[in-house]
Amino acid sequence: MEILVVYESSYGNTHLIADAIGEGVGTAHTVQVVPVAKATRELVDRADLVVVGGPTHIHGMSRPATREKAVEAAHQDGSTLVLDADAEGPGLREWFDTLGRVDANSAAFDTRIDASPLMTGRASKGISKQLRHHGFHEITSPISFLVTKETHLADGQQAAARQWGESLAHALAGYSDPTSAN
């Protein structure tokens, strides 16, 4: 089966999580991990499962203004923040605006600060809502992976993402046809 992992990343944490998910799910399937700017309709249409994730900005999915602030923060004098290679490209909101209807399986994830989701919000909830709106069939609940206040992945998050990827591979076996009654 073909798996597509689509990510948006500002400082590289969501990119690292996407790669780890790809490693986990790829143990049983063919997987491609791509930044949102390279997630073409052709790639989406070929996929049996599309896994989508992004960073949590101000309680939800990023917006052009929040991505711009992330870029500005990285360019400030003395900043230790390093932008992901595709950070200055389009975000998931813009990608969803161009996507149209898709009949495929899906899963949503995000990265967020290691604090209560009541305080941080969860981009994965908005991603999940968008996936369902576009006709995707979710095979699992949205999940968050945690980042420290210093913008580094919290301990164990890459391993957790690999394990989640493995669980997606197992779940996919029960959801191979998004139009079937499960």
Total number of helices: 7
Instruction: Give the termini separation.
Output: 19 Å
The total tally of domains equals: 1
CATH C-level class is Alpha Beta
Helix content: 25-40%
Explain what the structure shows.
Helix content is 40%, strand content 19%. Helix 1 crosses helix 7 (157-174). With 182 residues, the chain is of the alpha/beta class. The chain is built from seven helices and six strands. Strands 1, 2, 3, 4, 5 and 6 form a six-stranded parallel β-sheet that branches. The chain has a single domain, classed as Flavodoxin domain (Rossmann fold). The protein has helices at 13-25, 41-46, 64-75, 92-99, 117-120, 123-133, 157-174; strands at 2-7, 30-35, 49-55, 105-113, 137-138, 143-147. The longest helix has 18 residues, at 157-174.
Structure keywords:
182 residues, alpha/beta, Rossmann fold, 6-stranded parallel β-sheet, 7 helices, 6 strands, 40% helix, globular
Summarize it.
With 182 residues, the protein is an alpha/beta fold. Helix content is 40%, strand content 19%.
SSE layout and pairings?
Blueprint: E1 2-7, H1 13-25, E2 30-35, H2 41-46, E3 49-55, H3 64-75, H4 92-99, E4 105-113, H5 117-120, H6 123-133, E5 137-138, E6 143-147, H7 157-174
Parallel strand pairs: 1-2, 1-3, 3-4, 4-5, 4-6
Helix pairs in contact: 1-7
